[in-house]
Amino acid sequence: MFFSYKIKDVTPSKTSMISDLASKLKREGKEIISMAAGELDLSPEKNIKSKAIEVIKNGNTKYAPVSGLEELKEAISRKLMDENSLSYPTDHIIVSNGGKQVIYNALVSTINPGDEVIIISPYWVSYPEMVKLCGGVPKILKSDRESNYQINVEKLKKIISKKTKWLIINSPNNPTGTVYSPETLRKIAEILTEHSKIWVLSDEIYEKLNFIHHSPRNIVNIQKALKKRVLLVNGFSKSYCMTGWRLGYGAGPKRLIRSMLKVQSQSTSAANTIAQFAGVDALELSDSSFSDLLTILKRRQKIMLKEIQKINGLLTNRPEGAFYIFPSINFFIGKKLMDGTVIKDDLVFCKELLKRKNIAVVPGSSFGEKNCIRLSYALKAKDIILACNKMKEFCDSIE
Ligand SMILES: Cc1ncc(COP(=O)(O)O)c(C=O)c1O
């Protein structure tokens, strides 16, 4: 066969079905309000943008070193020390085209056929598919609404096998907005102490978008001994509103970073040079710019939760970070719209909501949790209210 077995196993994103339909409707002239976006509607700070323009004007636009510009790695190293009290010299750091590439580099350079990776569901859409692309086996550990999506450590113990290579944790979480508590992290650290071969990929891409500031926040801060088998993943997309700039970084043991650099050198060479220079300035932003961002997001979250509570049958969770909420639509499953269309599952719910009310949301099954939907409040307050009103009309028409 021409195509690889690996690609055969990778499932196309259900998210793209909704975004393709949304694009089609837009082309037909419909005004779509999207609560599906995984990015903020805000623009990066002025100094980040002017730095990029200055770099282009000065012609500092050649390939960067594979591991990243030295000045950016130094700034990342300082950030990790100042904000996270963790020492990572620059040769323990890799700069890539987004956190996504950091994760892919790590998995591709460590997974052998049949190796297992524990992923907590609901999960970010790309984790299981990346694991499969690397020849590994995703092992899904469900977390539930009752515990507000904290990790069930008893279940974690049971899912660990001799083949477990990685545990991926993501806090603040996409899609639930859950922030793992220090108790949860402490219990995970205890389990991992008994399983010395398992590594942890700690995806902290929403680190700054955290409304509850537990301390310590990070599994390495909880258990220093784990540092030699933890990869921290972070980036500029979410906290700095720099999604399209494609800039992320990883910090971890030197031997892992070295292997990841081999992959990067033979695949993308290095992250975008212009974005890297601007990234240095981004890391110098004062705390006040983040508190402004958090104030905006908290306000939007409050509005969305208030509006959602007006919708009969929609059961929401308690988000503590990121910019998503993840309500259950179980109440509507199996019920009918007025024209007889049956809401068979979350995908049908999302498609019909889009077709009938021009509101785009993401089906929970994309994140491994069916009969839920992910709503992003990365949009203006007036659009949140309008979209929620339309969603209420839609839900009220299901009987
Ligand atoms: C949980 C999580 N991790 C990683 C990423 C990757 O982000 P980026 O590649 O833009 O840095 C995303 C993007 O949506 C995400 O939601």
What does this protein structure show overall?
It is globular, with a radius of gyration of 21 Å. It has 14 helices and twelve strands. The mean pLDDT is 94. The longest helix is centred in the C-terminal third of the chain and has 23 residues. The protein has 399 residues and is α/β, with parallel strands linked by helices. Helix content is 41%, strand content 13%. The chain folds into two domains: 146 residues, Aspartate Aminotransferase, domain 1 (Alpha-Beta Complex); 223 residues, Type I PLP-dependent aspartate aminotransferase-like (Major domain) (Aspartate Aminotransferase, domain 2). It has a seven-stranded mixed beta sheet with strand order 2-8-7-6-5-3-4, with helices on both faces. It binds pyridoxal-5'-phosphate. The site of pyridoxal-5'-phosphate has 13 residues, from helix 5.
